[in-house]
Amino acid sequence: GAVVSQHPSRVICKSGTSVKIECRSLDFQATTMFWYRQFPKQSLMLMATSNEGSKATYEQGVEKDKFLINHASLTLSTLTVTSAHPEDSSFYICSAVLQGSYEQYFGPGTRLTVT
Amino acid sequence: SQKIEQNSEALNIQEGKTATLTCNYTNYSPAYLQWYRQDPGRGPVFLLLIRENEKEKRKERLKVTFDTTLKQSLFHITASQPADSATYLCASFGGSQGNLIFGKGTKLSVKP
After folding, report:
1. Contacts for B21 with CB less than 8 Å, ≥ 6 apart
2. Which range, of B49-58, B62-71, B96-105, averages the lowest pLDDT?
3. What phi and psi values does residue A86 have, to the nearest 5 degrees?
4. A16 phi and psi, to 5 degrees?
5. Which DSSP letter does residue B18 get?
């Protein structure tokens, strides 16, 4: 089946530093990847849509200069949290859309803790 | 705005019983609904998809229904087992980007 990986699975960083999270589709190509954020006991909230070869589309209220997204290839999208603050601590999950379909496959998530 | 609601935050049942989880949608008519399982600290795992013209769909011990009149989907797990304990999320395509809109989920606990 289609597998999506995320790296790292957990990261702790100091306030003010930047953190990069990778999302890879391992055995399929994905022209579109989504980045979600999930707070405890809350549903997944879409942050941005990452399209291969073009700029990401951000949801209202998500700062594009803070959450940098790069989708350089059909199998890799990266999310960089710049100048991280404690309120950015959350569970970040990506999903990849199987090229040519609506099937979405989710990564295992990345737990970010900003101290 | 489009909403997916799972009104039960938690459901506790005894092993062997049938678990029934509810998902309601408002302000739109999704062409299909999906159910996912999420374990703590993990991403969602796809379980079932049901289209609006399908009344019911089954997969092993899982059954999903879709009632467009009630704007509701029910998710059943028959002969539940402690290993079924997890959070179950209802979702549908509703975003302008083709993204999924999720409910908050229902945490199911199956006691032996």
Report:
1. B6, B8, B11, B74, B75, B76, B88, B90, B106, B108
2. B96-105
3. -55, -35
4. 100, -15
5. P
The CA distance from A41 to B95, in Å, is: 21
Q: Which of A42, A57, A91 sits opposite B97 (nearest CB)?
A: A57
Residue B1: pLDDT band (50, 70, 90) is: confident
What pLDDT was estimated at residue B29? Answer: 84
Residue with tokens 């395509």: B93
B46 touches chain A (CB under 8 A): yes
Burial class of B13 by CB neighbour count within 10 A (0 to 12, 13 to 18, 19+): middle
Digit-coded pLDDT (tens) for A23-67: 999 999 988 899 999 998 888 999 999 988 888 999 999 999 999
Quickly list DSSP for A56-96.
-EEPTT--TTTEEEEEEETTEEEEEE-S--GGG-EEEEEEE
- pLDDT of the residue at B95: 65
- Residue of B9, B89, B97 best to disrupt the A interface, most CBs of A under 10 A: B97
Q: Which of B35, B99, B107 to mutate to test the interface with A (most CBs of A within 10 A)?
A: B99
Query: Measured in Å, how far apart are chain A's first and last C-alpha atoms?
Result: 37
The helix/strand/coil state of A39 is coil
Burial (CB < 10 A; 0-12, 13-18, 19+), residue B11, is middle
User: Which residue bears the tokens 């530093």?
Assistant: A17
